Amino acid sequence: MTLRLDMPEENLASILGKAFGNRSFLAGFAITALVAAVALVSFLWTPYDVTRLVIADKTQAPSLAHWFGTDHFGRDILSMIMVGARNSIAVALVAVGIGVGIGVPLGAFAAARGGLVDEALMRLNDLVFAFPALLSAIMITAIFGPGAVNAIIAIGIFNIPVFARVARAGALAIWQREFILAARAAGKGKTLITLEHVLPNIVTLLLVQGTIQFALGILAEAGLSYVGLGTQPPMPSWGRMLFDAQTRMVVAPWMAIFPGMAIVITVLGLNLLGDGIADILDPRSRRRR
Amino acid sequence: MPSVWTKQDSGPVTAMTAYLLKRLAIAFATLVLASMVVFAVLEIIPGDPARLMLGMNASADQVELLRNQMGLNAPLALRYLHWAGGLLSLDFGRSYTYSVPVIDLVRERVVVSLPLALIALALSTLIAIPVGLFSAGRHGRAGDTIAMGAAQLGVAVPNFWFALMLIYLFAVWLRLVPAGGFPGWGAGIWPALKALVLPAIALALPQAAILARVTRSALIEVLNEDYIRTARAKGLPYRAVLWRHALRNAMIPVLTILGLQFAFLLAGTIIIENVFYLPGLGRLVFQAITQRDLIVVESVVMLLVAAVIAVNLLVDLSYAVVDPRLRSRP
């Protein structure tokens, strides 16, 4: 049994108590849970089949039968938004996974080694940041072909330096702490210290960044699909629905309004959730209150 | 005595020069690396530009001849040096699809994209700084909550959807501005500006929301400092403290975000110009990508990357202008 000096001073109960008192967290959690639930339900049930085209029902205004109206092929917009949620979440989540999976080890490694390795990795970061993310994502999907998988890779690549930077900054701060000195005195190597002491202490930082990148990923996927480089039809995606809506704004504005609102609500929920988590777990903001 | 003074005088200057030189060197190295990446990426793309230009019916000999003429058969390193040297002298080569020098295409387009990005940046700043000041001044009160709620919403809005909503409201419904297209600056300043108003607003508002949040939190951080309390204690009115002391000290994070936003705005023009059918750089690069006009793609991408690096360098340098403490730091 090793003495865990790096345990957070608070227990789970007090964190939960704080969470219930945080409006931003509660609202964000509720919205995110709702979107996730809608996406899950879409696997089992949607009001209408999104693959069936009913030309007789095309561009119908919102009604009791079709709450959000129908598109130019007579597909139910609500059903398409439900299936689109699944798609948006999957793309953004895997892209965050790529960023965390590659970026965090890189950042932690740079912080542990310091010196030239650190400098080289940070310059590499600068290099990636010099390319406007959306521009490169468009290039990548245009070169390797449009589609959800390439969109995930394109968005994921730009999450790598973000997480590397956050992990490095967080890890550098942890490396200054006394319990690291104690661990080194106990003869632990840098890898072991990173795994046992550094990473557990930067999880909250990564969680907050994760929600931000998740939200940005959803926006990026929508943007790519909107210009025709993301998820391909017939798979419904929010960005693609907006593309279809653009030329039909005058006759069927609901085709543009509802998918856009789905994006706004999802991103809003994730951002509120991230803000809430940061508020609850950040000792600095606690002191400020 | 004099030696002490000269030492104190030259100290900050040399530190400043060293800082400037280091930032310049890093910017240049990043630019060179970026050019290698762009060149390498486009090198591995499947598809022969010569074949693309001549069409599927051309014979292998014809294609080979054109490849030689275009210099596509030269060794890789040589082609890179030739290309990079061309970039430096603004000779980007000829477009495969338009058959005109790329620089001419860029010159035509940049007069749309640059004003658009600058108007958007100005709009974003003009909205964000006052909102940030307003919110920070009312930290925790109703005005702050409402303003930050609106900012939270603004951050979540995709700019292209916002653009569609603006078109619907102002172009389709109210008929105040055109729904898209660009008459050219030759048609007069006013019609041209009118065509750029909606795209600029669509680009600016989501960025303004981010900037307002950053401004507010930077200000709140600064307002908790001791020197602010001192300034208040000596009788300075709150407004003066906010503007003269707090805003200036909060500028560093605000400038950082402004620099980043320029990159976002440049990239944002790609999508926004497509929404509004504006003949700008973004639309040019997007069309070039779909038409595999690689020379245009690599030139425009390099221009945008160079712009981002230059702006980030400017931001780094402006830190020193805004914050005198940085000037004396090594």
TrEMBL record, chain A:
Subcellular location: Cell membrane
GO cellular-component term (any): plasma membrane
Cited InterPro entries: BP-dependent_transpt_permease, MetI-like, MetI-like_sf
Xref: PANTHER family: OLIGOPEPTIDE TRANSPORT SYSTEM PERMEASE PROTEIN APPC, PEPTIDE ABC TRANSPORTER PERMEASE PROTEIN
TM regions (residue ranges): 25-45, 89-112, 124-145, 198-220, 256-281
PROSITE patterns documented for this protein: ABC_TM1
Database matches in Pfam families: BPD_transp_1
Superkingdom of origin organism: Bacteria
Organism per entry: Mesorhizobium helmanticense
Entry keywords, A to Z: Cell membrane, Membrane, Transmembrane, Transmembrane helix, Transport
Protein name: Peptide ABC transporter permease
Family membership: Belongs to the binding-protein-dependent transport system permease family.
Domain ABC transmembrane type-1: 85-274
Topology term for the membrane: Multi-pass membrane protein
Chief location of this protein within or outside the cell: membrane
Keyword rRNA processing found: no
